[in-house]
Input
Amino acid sequence: MEKVPVSVVVITKNEEENIGPCLETVEWASDIIVVDDNSTDRTREIAAAFTDKIFVRAMENEGRHRNWAYSQAANKWVLSLDADERVTKELAQEIAALVKGSPEFKAYTIPRRNHIGSYWLKHGGEYPAPQTRFFLRDEFRYEEAEVHPRAFLSGKCGHLKGDLIHYSHRDIADYVRSLNSHTTLEAKKWFSAEKKMSFARAFRRTLDRCFYRRLLRKKAYKDGVYGLTVAVFSGIYQLVSWVKCWEMGNDTRSAPERSAAASKNRALSDPLKREKISVVIITKNAAGKLRNCLESVKWADEIVVVDARSTDGTLDIAGEYSDKIILSDFEGFDKERNKGADAATGDWILQLDADEVVTEAFRERIDRLLRGEDNGCVSFKFRRRNVFLGKAMSHGGWFHYSAHLFKKGYARYEGDIHETLVVNGKQGKMEEEVEHYPFDSMAEFIERQNRYTTLQAAEMLKKNGPAELKTVMYNLTVRPRKLFIKMYFKKAGFSEGMRGMVFAVMFAWVHYLKWAKYWELSQTEDGGKS
Output
């Protein structure tokens, strides 16, 4: 195919997997431009095999960045692409014929086939989903917005028939990462524009985008689990964007409360008149939260840190409080906790996460235990108060008991992800609290849950084999609704106001996420027969 007088412009950022296949589909263009946002992989090296017009420029604003990239075009007609897109032969031929003729319009939309993995989403508004990607350089520009910039064109827009193929997400986990990134940008856009968006409106938009627009009107259900996932994600996008926008106007960063801070320097009673206790903490890149945890247990007779080879300063902080640090290649939460317990020398062992903080009341209760109270019990459940969006939750099912206190030699952990303490003896209960600060923002919540649900899905596949579709659909459609009702109504999540509603919705979504990933893994495991 002879060279066509079209400038192809591609925006990149660490796209070594995509840039080659993308540029292979536009070698027919006489001008190829790559504008790279400081990639740290081989993106520019691979692109250099196709063009010498490679510019390195930081993207501070998507709309402004794209407008600058288009200004570098040598031809008057521009085809704008992302690295994860491919131009079909039909589209290439259509563009060539159009440029050789007398185009009626100044810009043209192109239908786009969106994919999750290798699956082409044909419903739910995902196809044809036309994008204005072919236009006259001097007649088209984007709004200078960070996310979803609007296009401005002087004149009418035509429509091409050939498709762009868009490999938008490698899998569901990648989809979640994209959702997390885009909702952060969306929230910044709303916040800077002082857009009026109440929680009630955001929640209504969540239901509207998911159920009415995607599932009912645009029939996303015809694409099966992936179609349902797109519908659910398009709905949750609205709620998450609002929460992040709300966070920007409210300081929700979790800081240990006075009750926890007060326990820092209070020692336990005379060690000659009591048993000894070891605190075991498992860590992985926890520098941001570990010090608060360690400060709250510096009264312990021994601190053992089991670290999965952190790279962020965690080990330096741990070394200030303990001389017993075990470096370990993570093999599962049960194995890591058992390693710490085996290395501990105390009579009792308290297992903590790096994002937990012990209260003064809990320290006093431990002191009484070590002095001989509660004889007959070899393990205790204690209260774990979780902090969500900057507030400790008392309702909604997130103020519960945690079984991580036991006498050495009387308990072992089982379970790679959701580890369970198996106790050989009597187990008691304590009402005193440990405070849990699992995430400081909604973005961190999503990142963490995306990681955990990927691990959980893999564990489910390993344990149960490929999932049956009937069971999957129950857990994608019925079970999340039951979980929401349980947390919001039965567990009185409504008492927490907006946080209770968001909490119930997000944890129902997390259950959905785990099962959608389990289904996705099952397709690979059994050839898609489930």
Residues 476 and 516 are 7 Å apart (CA to CA). The first strand starts at residue 4 and ends at 12. The domain at 4-169 is CATH 3.90.550.10 (Spore Coat Polysaccharide Biosynthesis Protein SpsA; Chain A).
